[in-house]
Amino acid sequence: MQQIYYFLLLLTSMLWAGNFVAGKFLVGHASFLTLTSIRWFIAILFLFPFVRFKEKQLLPPRKALFLLFLMGVTGVDFFNIFMFLALERTSADNVGLISALNPIAIAIASFFILKEKMSRRQILGMTLSLLGVFIVISEGEWQKLLRFHFNTGDLFMLAAVGSWGLYSVVGRKVMHQVSPLMSTLWAGIFGVLTLLPFNLFTFYVIDPNFSFWMATAYVSIGATVLGMVFWNIGVQKVGGTKSGMFLNFNPIFTAFFAYFFLGEHITFVQLIGTVTVIIGVYIFTLRANSISKQATLMNE
C-alpha cells in the first residue's frame, strides 16, 4: 500500500520540477510580481473547494492568522519572487539543482528559530551539498568564488530556498492549529493581498497566447494545488523524513524536462555538482536509527 504514497511523492517531485521549466517560459511574458499574483490567484480558486469539502469550513482560528500571514509573505511572496527572478537569469537546470537544498534550509531555519540541534552527520551532509552548489554556481572555476563572481540567478534561487526554509518552520508551528490544506489556502490569500499594492499598477502580460495560459494553469493547478495535496498525503502516510528524500529527484526531473522543452543541455560540471548535492542531501536526511541498525547488522 505504501507504494501508492511513494508514487504520489515521486509525482510531486515531477510536478515541482516541471514548475521550474514552465516558469522559465513564463518569465518572458510577465514580471515576477505579475506571475506570482496570477499563479496564486488561480491556485486559491481551486483550493477553496478542496478546503470546503475536507474541512467543512473556510475560516481559520483567529490565533493562527499572524502565522498564516508570515507563511504568505515567506512562502508565497518571497519564494515565488526570488524563484521567478532566478529563472530570468539562470537555467532551469540550476534552479532545480539548488531547490534540492530545501531540506537543509528547513533544518537551518529550525536550528536558529526552533533551537533544534543538528548532528555531525547532518552537518557533513549539509557541507557536501553546499560544495555541490558552489561547484555549479562557480561553473567549476574556483577563482569566481574568490572574486565573488556569481550568476545572480543562482543567488536569487538560494534566497528562494532560504525563504522556503522559513516558510516551512512557520508552517510547522501553525499546523498545530490548522490543517495543511487550510494553511496553504490562507497563506496564498495573505500572499496575494500583500503583493496587491505593489503589483496593482504594474500588472502586465506580454502576448498572453495559448502556451502562456497552459503554462500558467500548470504552475497554478499542477505544481501548486495538486503538488501540495500529494505532498501532504505523502507526509501524513510515510512521514516527513522519507518524503523529504523524494526532493532529491527535483534536479533529475528538471534536467529531463529542460532538455526536451527548453533545449538546455546539462554540462559535466553541472552533473558533478548535482551528484554531490544529492549525495549530501541523502546523508543529511538519513535517519540516525537507520544508521545504527546498519551498524548492528554489520557487527552481527
Automatic annotation (TrEMBL):
<dbReference type="Pfam" id="PF00892">
    <property type="entry name" value="EamA"/>
</dbReference>
<feature type="transmembrane region" description="Helical">
    <location>
        <begin position="32"/>
        <end position="53"/>
    </location>
</feature>
<protein>
    <submittedName>
        <fullName>Transporter</fullName>
    </submittedName>
</protein>
<feature type="transmembrane region" description="Helical">
    <location>
        <begin position="123"/>
        <end position="142"/>
    </location>
</feature>
<feature type="transmembrane region" description="Helical">
    <location>
        <begin position="97"/>
        <end position="114"/>
    </location>
</feature>
<keyword id="KW-1003">Cell membrane</keyword>
<feature type="transmembrane region" description="Helical">
    <location>
        <begin position="65"/>
        <end position="85"/>
    </location>
</feature>
<keyword id="KW-0472">Membrane</keyword>
<dbReference type="GO" id="GO:0005886">
    <property type="term" value="C:plasma membrane"/>
</dbReference>
<dbReference type="InterPro" id="IPR037185">
    <property type="entry name" value="EmrE-like"/>
</dbReference>
<feature type="transmembrane region" description="Helical">
    <location>
        <begin position="268"/>
        <end position="288"/>
    </location>
</feature>
<feature type="domain" description="EamA">
    <location>
        <begin position="4"/>
        <end position="137"/>
    </location>
</feature>
<feature type="transmembrane region" description="Helical">
    <location>
        <begin position="245"/>
        <end position="262"/>
    </location>
</feature>
<feature type="transmembrane region" description="Helical">
    <location>
        <begin position="148"/>
        <end position="170"/>
    </location>
</feature>
<keyword id="KW-1133">Transmembrane helix</keyword>
<feature type="domain" description="EamA">
    <location>
        <begin position="152"/>
        <end position="285"/>
    </location>
</feature>
<feature type="transmembrane region" description="Helical">
    <location>
        <begin position="212"/>
        <end position="233"/>
    </location>
</feature>
<dbReference type="InterPro" id="IPR050638">
    <property type="entry name" value="AA-Vitamin_Transporters"/>
</dbReference>
<keyword id="KW-0812">Transmembrane</keyword>
<comment type="similarity">
    <text>Belongs to the EamA transporter family.</text>
</comment>
<dbReference type="InterPro" id="IPR000620">
    <property type="entry name" value="EamA_dom"/>
</dbReference>
<feature type="transmembrane region" description="Helical">
    <location>
        <begin position="182"/>
        <end position="206"/>
    </location>
</feature>
